[in-house]
Each structure stands twice: as structure tokens, then as C-alpha cells.
UniProtKB/TrEMBL annotation:
Domain DUF2470: 219-292
Record-linked InterPro entries: DUF2470, Haem_Oase, Haem_Oase-like, Haem_Oase-like_multi-hlx, Haem_oxidase_HugZ-like_sf
Gene Ontology terms, MF aspect: heme binding; heme oxygenase (decyclizing) activity; metal ion binding
Coiled coil (UniProt feature): none
Keyword Disulfide bond among record annotations: no
Record Pfam families: DUF2470, Heme_oxygenase
Protein name, UniProt field: DUF2470 domain-containing protein
Keywords linked to the UniProt accession: Heme, Iron, Metal-binding
């Protein structure tokens, strides 16, 4: 009979919790750049508070699961100094309600229950070494930050050459730990709690940093444009979409930076994006911006003012 290693059991038992974390609306908005850069700074500040306790526990308990190559606190400080300034970064260090609960749980168990410490340590650091790497690339692209430089140092591990090998070593250490069945179950439950606390932190931030153009809002705007302004869309695409021969234009999407159409040219359709003059932060600005595009399109096409 083959015995499933604990690390595999743990991963299987908590993968649904992972999916909920991965599907966080806040993370999706952040990684797509739909909310301001301040949201990235706010998450970095919450991370600072969490890693402060986690790394204090790692230090005080001399946990074999921790290593200097993982230590994140100096990187988090440097990121915050870069994002909000050396004089102001400490002002961001106010825990959200969920972070306060997370910190209380860490203080309650991480200094006295080695298995509980590992549950939280695994949850954060293996996450940072895995999905965190995707998150960092997306944030870099969305906000013009550079991987491995201040602003995103939290996600880079320069002292670890091979992240996959490091994670495999970490899992082997978990598999070799002398935890009986009861302890293993307790640790699995604690990892589930860790996921829940992380999701709650993300949801707290999601209440503050709201994407002004969620799918339902875009759908309403599209319906209005396509029902009532189809001819206006054609003019906008002719003047600003690089489609001078457009005969029809159906709005197909938008975000804070531009509006998209499926444009008909000579019987074929082509996707066309028209950038806004500025990044929009509120729904009410869409009407103003699209109206401006329409009037300027008429002028650019040599038509009389409407
Ligand atoms: C956009 C968000 C996320 C993405 C794309 C993502 C993606 C991934 C991927 C692809 C893996 C597997 C890596 C491998 O097999 O080596 C992974 C593992 C992991 N992630 Fe995430 N993740 C995200 C968010 C999170 C969050 C918010 C947490 C919790 C704080 C988290 C915690 C973990 C942990 C603990 C593992 C290791 C699981 C194991 O192998 O035992 N992830 N993630």
C-alpha cells in the first residue's frame, strides 16, 4: 500500500480553499490594473503587518521551516518606501478588520504551536513562491513596475536559485515531520483558516478599491451604446479607431482606458479599440468622454457640429 505524503494530502484537502483565494475579485482587479496603484500599496502594507508577526515567530521559535532566503520584511519596507515615500509608508500600517483577526490568530498560535506556525508559514511563503510569481508579473505589466525592483521586491527571492526545487524541499520537510494523524488534521484545518483569513483581507481591500467598470456595468453601457448610439459609434471608429471605411460598429467592451468595438469594414468585422483621453475612475465620466469623442469625431471628419 502506498501512503500519500502529507504535503500531497494537505494540498488536495485545501485546493478548493486555494481556488477561492485565487478567484478574489480584488486580486483580479489588481492584476488587471483596473484599480489605482494605491491598492497595490495597501495590500503591501497589510502584508507588512502579517509578515512582521510571522517572521518574528520564525525567529523566536527558530523554526527549521524558515530560512533567511524567505525573509520578506525588508523587501516589504523597501516596496512601501518606493510606492508611498520614506516619510509616509508607516502611515499605511493600519490593519483592516480581517488583518487584525489574522494577526490575533498568529499571535495566539505561531509562537507556541509549531504545527500551527508551519500551517501559516506554508500558506504564505509557498503561495508567494507559486501564484505570487504570476501576480508580480501581472502587477508589473499593469502598473509599469519592474520585477525584482522596489515596488515589487516582495515577490522576488534572489537568494533562491530554483523556486520549484525549493518548494519540493519544503514539501519533503513537511512529509518528514513527526506529526501524527491528529496533528496533521489540525494543521490542515489551520491552513484552511489561513486561506480564509487571506481571502478576508483581500475582500476588505476590495471594499475600498472598487473597479468602477465591473462586467454588469460594462454590459449596461454596451446595451445603451448599441441600442441608441450605433451611428455615433461608427463616426468614433472612423475618426479615432483607424477605421475610415467603417460601415457599422458594435461596442464590445471597455475599461478605464478605452472603449472597444467590432467594426464592419467591407463585409468583414475587425476588433477596434479607441483610447480615452484620460483614465476614467467613475462611471459618470463615460458619458462625458464618449460624447467628447463623438463631437471631436464629427469635427475631424469635416461634419457640422451636432
Ligand atoms: C492570482 C492569484 C493566484 C494564482 C494565479 C495562484 C496560482 C498558484 C499555482 C499555479 C500554484 C501551484 C504551483 C506549484 O505547483 O508549484 C499555487 C500554489 C499555491 N498557492 Fe496560489 N495562486 C494565487 C493566489 C494564492 C493566494 C491568495 C494564496 C494564499 C495566501 C495562495 C497560496 C498558495 C499555496 C500555499 C500554494 C502551494 C500549494 C502546494 O503545492 O502545496 N495562492 N498557486
Amino acid at each position: 500500500m502506498t501512503i500519500t505524503p502529507f504535503s500531497s494530502r494537505l494540498r488536495t484537502a485545501t485546493w478548493a480553499d486555494h481556488a477561492s483565494a485565487e478567484q478574489s475579485t480584488f486580486l483580479a482587479d489588481l492584476t488587471k490594473g483596473r484599480i489605482p496603484l494605491a491598492a497595490h500599496a495597501a495590500l503591501t502594507a497589510q502584508h507588512y503587518l502579517i509578515y512582521e508577526v510571522l517572521e518574528q515567530a520564525a525567529h523566536e521559535t527558530a523554526s527549521p521551516f524558515h530560512s533567511p532566503a524567505l525573509t520578506r520584511l525588508p523587501a516589504l519596507k523597501a516596496d512601501l518606501e518606493h510606492l508611498v515615500g520614506a516619510a509616509d509608508w508607516a502611515g499605511l500600517l493600519t490593519p483592516t478588520t480581517a488583518t487584525a483577526e489574522y494577526l490575533a490568530r498568529l499571535r495566539e498560535i505561531a509562537f507556541t504551536w509549531p504545527g500551527g506556525f508551519v500551517a501559516h508559514h506554508y500558506n504564505r511563503y509557498l503561495g508567494d513562491l507559486s501564484g505570487g510569481q504570476f501576480v508580480a508579473r501581472a502587477i508589473a505589466k499593469a502598473y509599469g513596475l519592474r520585477l525584482g525592483e522596489p515596488g515589487l521586491l516582495f515577490y522576488s527571492f534572489p537568494l533562491i536559485d530554483d523556486l520549484q526545487a525549493f518548494k519540493a524541499g519544503y514539501r519533503s520537510m513537511m512529509d518528514a515531520a513527526e506529526w501524527d494523524e491528529v496533528e496533521q488534521e489540525r494543521i490542515i484545518d489551520e491552513v484552511k483558516l489561513a486561506y480564509r483569513l487571506n481571502i478576508d483581507v483581500l475582500n476588505d481591500l476590495g471594499k475600498v478599491y472598487v473597479n468602477p467598470f465591473p462586467p454588469e456595468v460594462v454590459a449596461q453601457i454596451m446595451k445603451h451604446m448599441n441600442d441608441d448610439h450605433a451611428a455615433d459609434s461608427v463616426l468614433i471608429c472612423r475618426a479615432f479607431g483607424g477605421q475610415p471605411d467603417a460601415t457599422a460598429a458594435v461596442m464590445s467592451g471597455m475599461d478605464a482606458d478605452g472603449i472597444e468595438f467590432e467594426v464592419t469594414v467591407g463585409g468583414a468585422t475587425q476588433p477596434t479599440r479607441v483610447p480615452f483621453s484620460t483614465r476614467l475612475t467613475q462611471r459618470a465620466e463615460v458619458r462625458v468622454e464618449v460624447t467628447r469623442l463623438y463631437h471631436e469625431a464629427r469635427a475631424r471628419l469635416g461634419m457640422p457640429p451636432a
